Amino acid sequence: MLDKGRIILYLSAIIRQPVRGSSGEIVGRMTDMVVRMTEAETFPPVAGLVTAIVGRSRHRFFIHATDIAEISEQGVRLKTDNFNLAPFTRRDSEVLLGKDVLDKQLVDINGRRVIRVNDVTLTRQPNGAGYRVAGVDVSAASLVDRLGLRRLAAGMQREVIPWDSVQFFASEVPVVKLKLSYDKLARLHPADLGEIIGDLGYQQGGEMIAALAETHGDELAADMIEELDAELGAAVISAMDVEDAADIIEEMETDEAADLLAELPPEQAEDILEAMEEEEAEDVRELLQYEEDTAGGIMTNEYLSLSPALTVGTALARLRAAELPEFTYYLYILDDTETLLGVVSLRGLLQAQDDQTLGEIMIPAASVFTAQVNERAREVAETMLHYDLLAMPVLEDGRLVGIVQTHDALERLIPDESQRSFFGGAR
Amino acid sequence: MSERTPWLALVSRRVRGAGRRPRRPGWLKYLAVLGPGIIAAAAGNDAGGITTYSTVGAQYGYQLLWAMVLITVSLIVVQEMVARLGAVTGKGLSDLIREQFGVRWTAFAMLALLVANAGTTTSEFAGVAAAMELFGISKYISVPIAAVMIWWLVARGSFGRVERLFLAMSLIAVTYIVSAFLARPDWGAVLSHTVVPTVRWDAGFLVMFVALVGTTITPYMQIYQQSSIVEKGITARDYGLARVDVITGVLFSDLVSYFIIVATGATLFFQGTRVETAADAAAALAPVAGPFASTLFAVGLLGASVLAAGVLPIATAFPICEAFGWEAGMSRDMADAPVFYGIFTSMILVSALVTLIPGLPLIQLQIVVQVINGLLLPIELVFITLLASNHELLGRFTNGRGFAILAWTTTLVVGVLALALVVITVVLPIFGIQLG
Question: Cα distance from A246 to chain B (closest Cα, Å)?
Answer without folding.
Answer: 17
